[in-house]
Structure formats: C-alpha cells, structure tokens
Amino acid sequence: MTAEQYKKLVDELIELLDEGVYIVDKDGVGIHYNRVMARTEKVDVEDVLGKKFHEAFPDFKTGESTIYKALIKKQRTQADQQTYKNFYGKEVTTENATIPVIVDGKAVAAIEISRDITELRSMSDTLLKLREEASQTRSSDNPEHRMYSFDDIYGENEAFEAAVNRARKASQNDASVFIYGETGTGKELFAQSIHSNGKRAGKPFIAQNCAAIPESLLEGLLFGTTKGSFTGAVDRAGLFEQANGGTLLLDEVSAMPYDLQSKLLRVLQESYIRRIGGAKDIPVNVRIIATVNEPPEELIAKGFLRKDLYYRLNVINISIPPLRDRPDDIAMLSEKFMEKFNERFSKEIWMISDGALRKLESYDYPGNVRELENIIEQAISMADNEHVLTEKHLNIPDNRVSREPELRYGEGMALDEYLDTLEKQIIADEMLKYNGNITKAAEGLKIRRQTLQHKLKKYGIK
Ligand SMILES: Nc1ncnc2c1ncn2[C@@H]1O[C@H](COP(=O)(O)OP(=O)(O)OP(=O)(O)O)[C@@H](O)[C@H]1O
Ligand SMILES: [Mg+2]
Predict the structure, then answer these.
(1) Is 187 in the pocket of ligand 1 (CB under 6 A)?
(2) Domains of the chain, with CATH numbers?
(3) DSSP letter at 348?
C-alpha cells in the first residue's frame, strides 16, 4: 500500500468512530482529524490539518498539553479531563487519552482520542443538587425517614452474630468500616445501624453507589465543583461536604475508577477535600463505610480495588455471610417477615408448615435476605383468609444447578461470543493468578502486554 492509500485508510477508519480522533506527526503538525473531533472542538478540519498543534489551539499552554507530553516525553495519558478554548474562543471540556506512537525508541506521532463530556459534566451538577435535597429529608434525626438500627437486624447464626457484634463495636468508635457481603445480605442495614447507634446519629447519613454513576461524574459528585471548572459548573458542595459530621456510605467502592480511589485515599489520610477546579482545602469530618459484594481479595487481584485504599478502609472489617451459608436463620427470618407483611396487608397468617419451611430452607438464595423477604411478601399478599403458610404460597425459582454454570458451547451462542466469554474467563483467571500484575499475566498468556491491556479494557477487567 502506498503512503497515500494508507493515509486514506486511516481517514476512513477514524470517521467510523464515535470518539474524536486527532493525530499529529513528530513535529506536532495535524495529519488526521475526524469530524467528531471537529464538532466537539467546534473548529473546522482545515484549521487543524497541516497546522502545528499550538497554532491550531493557541490558548493551550504547551507544557500542559497531553499531545506535547506524548511527543516530547513519550508519555501516555489516560482519561485526562481538559477544559480549553478552541480556535474561535469557545470553551470545551473533554476526556482524553493521548498515546505516543513510538518507532525505534522515537515518538513519530501522537494520537489523541477524545470524548466530549461538556454535557455530562453539567449533569453532575443536577445530580448533586438532587442529592442535597434528598439528604435533607434523609438525615437520621428526621422522623419522616427512620433509619435502620440494630433492632431491625434479625439472625442468630453464629457467624452472622459475630458480624453483627463487630458492627456494634464499630458503632462505638469512628474508624472506617469495610463491609463485604453479597447482594441482599444487609450491608445497608448494617451501615445505617452503625451510624444510628453511634455519636454521629442525628448527623447526615448519605449513601452513594459508586457503580450507579458514570465514572466521569463521580469525582464531582464526591468532592464538589467550583464555578468555571467546566462549562456550566457552579459552586456546589460534593457528598463529602454534605455528609460532614456524619457518615458517607460508599457502596461498590470497587467500581470507582482507580485514579479516584487514590484521591479518596488521600482525603481519608488528610481529612480535607478540594472541589474540582477549586484552590481551597476544605476540612471534612466524615466517617466512611465502604462496601463490596465480591470478595475483596479477588477485587484487589483483578485490579478493581486498590490495595492501599482497602487497607485504609479496612480498619474494621465486617463480612456478612450469604443466606445459603446460614440456613439455620431462615425460620426466624421468615417469621419476622410474616409479621411485617401480615400487618402491611392485613392478613393473619401466623404459622408456617413444615413442608413450606423445608422448601424455604433448601433454596440457595442468590438474592439473599432480600430475596427471602420478597418471597414471603409475595406469599402473604397472595394468601386468602388463611392462617398457615404452605408450599402452595411459595413462589421459589428452581435451584440453579450451580452458581456459575460451566460454559458449554452450542446453546444458541454465536461462536465469537462463546470465544470471547472463554477468553475473558482465561484472562480473569490469569490476572488473579498473578495478583493483577499485567506484565506477568501477559508473560503467562504468552501475549504482548499491550494486547493484554487492550483485552482487559475490552472485557472490563481492570
Ligand atoms: N439480617 C436481616 N434482618 C432483617 N432484614 C434484613 C436482613 N438482611 C437483609 N435484610 C433486608 O433485606 C433487604 C436488603 O438489605 P440491604 O439493602 O441492606 O442489602 P445490601 O447488602 O445493601 O444489598 P445490595 O448489595 O443489593 O445493595 C432489606 O429490605 C433489608 O431490610
Ligand atoms: Mg446496598
């Protein structure tokens, strides 16, 4: 292929992408620039192609640009947010990745991929405003919104009681708490009880699921924003400030981007935050309760959870056993839920038959206590003028054969889909084996490090 043909190929290729693409040669002269990028930056392709980077974007301080870092220092930049003025003086915020293209040890070009997050960022502001309003109704001294307390936690199983006792102790001090439990095991119940039984009761309790918010919004949500830190931003306190004096529950903390995890660690060590774009250190006094629903050791090995953050949060460590490991609690939980729903639905089911109990006890509850509660709720709501809960009231799915059914080909699966799943599994295992060390895992798999990085990203394994 001639150079001309090759250039055409790249031009066609980058027009197919949803992201903006900008490629400069070794002198910083624009050689490819796609339409998405032009739209984001509101400049014309012609104003960038054939021009040096600093001519095309005069407002940019050369030392700060990731393109410059890539060309001169051969440095990669990932998920970097930049707010800048384009050719016509318009302000744009983008999230960028910039990669040097290195041949024989020299940077011969730099590629910048960019996503316009101007709108996303202004959403962050709306979210914070909503949270602020919600937290006013949610604070634990508001009788309208009763918080859970230890009296609401049922269970007598030994391992479960041990977990409750640790939580009770935790409520008497101020250390960070790390709770591991599968979905529906009662992590929120524990966290609220710790808050409402301690000296922070009466102060705000704010819960945020880190997996529920786009990565690029989470930082602003946690730490707040300052006017002008990005287009449309106003001065707004983040959740840390909103929870000041109280407790911040960070659910699924392992869903937080790695960089943000290190910022969180710093906040925990230094007890002050800085709003995005702000210059002021704001002291905060917030107790953190973090939760995960997969074993933390695995999350660390797979690179989802920073080890240093984990150690910092793990001052008090609570592990709530899944319901299938404590079948001895099913009878008493069922009775408690029967009472609750009798009252709610004005029913009078006071007993549970042996058959029904056996059925409840032999199920494995992937959704844990929440699922049991739903099963009882459904049973009571559907019951007639009866007094005994029997098997016929119970709508329980068939026990799954195994939690992770062995992957077999031929069940209506496309071949490439099957191979992808297989590949993902192999890579995840290898990452686990090498404790998240990409270089070693790549060696183990006999593939290039870059290839592995690409696949990790593709499959969402970090
Ligand atoms: N030991 C328990 N006693 C009484 N109710 C419980 C218990 N454990 C869980 N529940 C009930 O189960 C439901 C789910 O609990 P919770 O929301 O605390 O779980 P979770 O671990 O935070 O789940 P997820 O991981 O999905 O967020 C709630 O209605 C809660 O009251
Ligand atoms: Mg929860």
Answers:
(1) yes
(2) 3-116 (3.30.450.20), 119-319 (3.40.50.300), 324-393 (1.10.8.60), 415-458 (1.10.10)
(3) -
